[in-house]
Structure of Argininosuccinate lyase:
Amino acid sequence: MKYFLSGLVASGLAIAAAPSFAADARNVTVVNETGYAIKFLGFNAPDDGLDEWDNELDKVLQNQASTYVEFDEDDEGCVWNIRVDWQNYDEAVLWKNVNLCRITALRLRYDSGTKTTSFLAE
């Protein structure tokens, strides 16, 4: 019993001494459920205008694939614009003022009947 308590105390101290790596509330998983490949996925703050974008993708995001987007400390605020560009089409989709602090995943969807792209927030 003495060794068990010593081990328990040592484990507790090790956990308490470890740095805390809490995920940023804006980090989001994007799942492509559109049926089409995506070549560009960008996020920008509403105050940045619609001309400043960085591509969050290292490679084309195929249908049924997902990517995890991480924000860093320099990024501020919960509300962001989101832009998607298709691999084989010149059109882009833009959603404005999306509160990422309330979302952990975005499931991108395309409705061929209405020809609209939407997302389901989780």
Summary: The two ends are 46 Å apart (CA to CA). DSSP finds one helix and seven strands in the chain. Residues 39 and 58 are 9 Å apart (CA to CA).
